[in-house]
Amino acid sequence: MRYQITDLSHPACLEVLGKLCDTKSSADVEEIASSLDILSVPSFELRQLFFVLGSRVLSGMIGYLMANVKTDDDLAAIGGLTQIRHSLFLANATAAAIH
């Protein structure tokens, strides 16, 4: 449902979403989502993509990346993803409180 209200058009985003739709394994979901080259995607599309993926997939992504950290830049990227996930948690909590 979230995908239907977005306007994603970047090929990398569409590829990741297509692969995610075809998988059932949580380990595969984490690996597929983590394969996205975040720097190649415009920030507007990234915000939409993270909204579509949701906090659960982002948590899996963060876990996968934590297990595969190699550089300080990797850690910085994980820090950024945790902030995005926290924003999604807050938005979900606010929406739940309203209803």
β-strand percent reads under 5%
What is the overall silhouette? globular
First-to-last CA distance: 18 Å
Order of helices and strands: HHHH
Helix content: over 70%
- Chain-averaged pLDDT: 84
| Main beta-sheet annotation | none
Structure commentary:
The chain is mainly alpha-helical and 99 residues long. It has one domain. The chain contains 4 helices and no strands. It has helices spanning 11-21, 26-34, 43-67, 72-98. Helix 2 packs across helix 3 and helix 3 (43-67) crosses helix 4 (72-98). The two termini are 18 Å apart.
Briefly characterize the structure.
This protein has 99 residues and is mostly helical. The protein has helices at residues 11-21, 26-34, 43-67, 72-98. The chain has one domain.
Secondary structure elements and their pairing?
Blueprint: H1 11-21, H2 26-34, H3 43-67, H4 72-98
List the main descriptive attributes of the protein structure presented here.
single chain, mainly alpha, 4 helices
